[in-house]
From TrEMBL:
It comes from Fibrisoma limi BUZ 3. Belongs to the major facilitator superfamily. Bcr/CmlA family. This is Drug resistance transporter, Bcr/CflA subfamily. It is a multi-pass membrane protein. GO terms for molecular function: sodium:proton antiporter activity; xenobiotic transmembrane transporter activity. PROSITE patterns: MFS (PS50850). The lineage of its organism: Bacteria, Pseudomonadati, Bacteroidota, Cytophagia, Cytophagales. SUPFAM superfamilies: MFS general substrate transporter. InterPro entries: Efflux_drug-R_Bcr/CmlA, MFS, MFS_dom, MFS_trans_sf. Residues 9-394 form the Major facilitator superfamily (MFS) profile domain. GO terms for biological process: xenobiotic detoxification by transmembrane export across the plasma membrane.
Length: 411
């Protein structure tokens, strides 16, 4: 494979990976305009984000087996085709109920890109290059929240909120053409792969029984859901309460995205001195302290716009460390069932994100408290689960060691 071919493949896989992040972030500046145009509230518009996260959560569980059974490209064609049609459906929606339904369908189609991109990296690149390729994809995904809301803000002002979904449909159609004509096939269809629910659920059950998976999947899923509370609540907080424009909101979102991006890139340096467990524990303690002052200061009215932005920036710095390290610890126990573990972990994270975004909508009271309260609550809950889970892991390890010792003595 030539360098030019490698570049083309990585570019396509990178754009595939950003379909869902762009779909989440790009329409956020349009929340007030959508609410006004559809004669509804921002709290109702937030439910369209919840629907999208639910779709991603369910879709990831479906596409894993489908990509193995039917090969990489056929599920991609089907999923991205559904995404394009649903995006156009979003653009012509005349009620909030229709928009919510179209967003659900959009997510069910578009999340194939997230799963297929990871599978194709393993298919198309040598083992010694996969880590480097995954790093490039991670960087592209991390940068997308800095771009998408800014583009969405300007598109909303210039052409209206409907144009955001037309842009997403056009971009995805171009990606689909590149997949057809440029992207290699990857792994072919395998008729021996079973799609029976019993076989799939059996693998999932084996994974869930592992205490380390359950602990760090819960910790990572709940603690990493804090940004979804921010994503769901920030359009109302900044544009309705603090009266920033759509374009200004896009720039605010881009600046706060740096808080997540920067530590994520430093993580590999920190891991040379500290373990995954140390980084997760320390970061959750840090975020719990900042979260306490975030809620207290918001409730007491300490913060103006810039004060709130500063504390949010400090809080979000922890997300770039919690997410990757908890993911590494979640998958560490597995060799045989790694695929099932990845699907469950990703699905759980998006599922919790959906619940969190819905909770922000339900608690909506025209203040920033629902947003910051749910953000802090995610971290507090994650830290409590970490403490309890670590005890369960130690207990399992000790009893496994005792059992092995008895077996060896008997022999």
């Amino acid at each position: 494979m030539t360098r030019r071919q490698q570049f083309s493949i990585i570019l396509i896989l990178g754009t595939l990976s950003t379909i869902s992040p762009f779909s989440i972030d790009m329409y956020l500046p349009g929340f007030p305009a959508i609410a006004s145009d559809l004669n509804t509230s921002i709290a109702q518009v937030q439910l369209s984000l919840t629907a999208y996260l639910v779709g991603i959560s369910v879709g990831q569980l479906l596409y894993g087996p489908l990509l193995d059974r039917f090969g990489r490209k056929l599920p991609l064609y089907a999923g991205l085709g559904v995404y394009v049609l649903a995006s156009l459906g979003c653009a012509v929606s005349t009620s909030i109920e229709t928009l919510i339904l179209m967003r659900l369908l959009q997510a069910l189609g578009g999340c194939v890109g997230m799963v297929a991109a990871q599978a194709l990296v393993r298919d198309l690149f040598p083992v010694d290059q996969t880590a480097q390729v995954f790093s490039l994809l991670t960087l592209v995904i991390a940068v997308s929240p800095m771009i998408a809301p800014t583009v969405g803000g300007y598109a909303t002002v210039l052409f209206g909120w409907h144009s955001i979904f037309v842009i997403l449909a056009v971009i995805t159609a171009l990606i689909l053409l590149a997949i057809v004509y440029v992207l290699p096939n990857g792994r072919q269809a395998d008729a021996s792969i079973s799609l029976r629910p019993q076989a799939v659920l059996g693998n999932f059950y084996t994974v869930i029984r592992q205490p380390q998976f359950l602990t760090y999947a819960l910790v990572g899923g709940i603690a990493s859901a804090a940004p979804f509370a921010y994503i769901s609540g920030s359009p109302d907080v900044f544009m309705n309460i603090y009266k920033v424009s759509e374009q200004e909101y896009g720039w605010i979102f881009a600046v706060l995205a740096i808080a997540i991006l920067a530590p994520n890139q430093l993580n590999h340096v920190l891991l040379k001195r500290y373990s995954n467990q140390q980084l997760v524990s320390t970061t959750l303690v840090y975020q719990s302290v900042v979260g306490f002052f975030l809620v207290l200061g918001t409730w007491a009215g300490w913060y103006n716009l810039y004060g709130l932005l500063g504390v949010l920036f400090l809080f979000l710095l922890g997300q770039g460390l919690v997410a990757p390290n908890s993911a590494a610890l979640t998958l560490a126990p597995f060799v045989r069932h790694t695929g099932s573990a990845v699907a469950l972990m990703g699905s759980f994270r998006m599922g919790v994100g959906a619940l969190v975004s819905a909770l922000v909508s339900v608690l909506h009271n025209n203040t920033a408290l629902p947003m910051v309260g749910v953000m802090a609550g995610c971290i507090f809950s994650g830290f409590l689960i970490l403490l309890l889970g670590q005890r369960a892991i130690r207990y399992r390890s000790q009893h496994t060691d005792v059992g092995e010792s008895i077996a060896e003595a008997t022999l």
